[in-house]
Please model this.
Amino acid sequence: MSKALIIVDIQNDYFENGAMELVGSLEASENAKKILLKFRNEKLPIVHIQHLSVAPGSFFFFA
Model:
């Protein structure tokens, strides 16, 4: 069986004082860190996806 870790949008805007603060973002990032370290230690594939905004008037996810 093949496997890979895909991490999507763990960005500053979702944390305390961010433009789109979410409940539980710190806990979610700590869990993501645990699995990320496991995949790194096992030399398994990891993909990071980050959304960026280049739209005029955008107030978060700046490029």
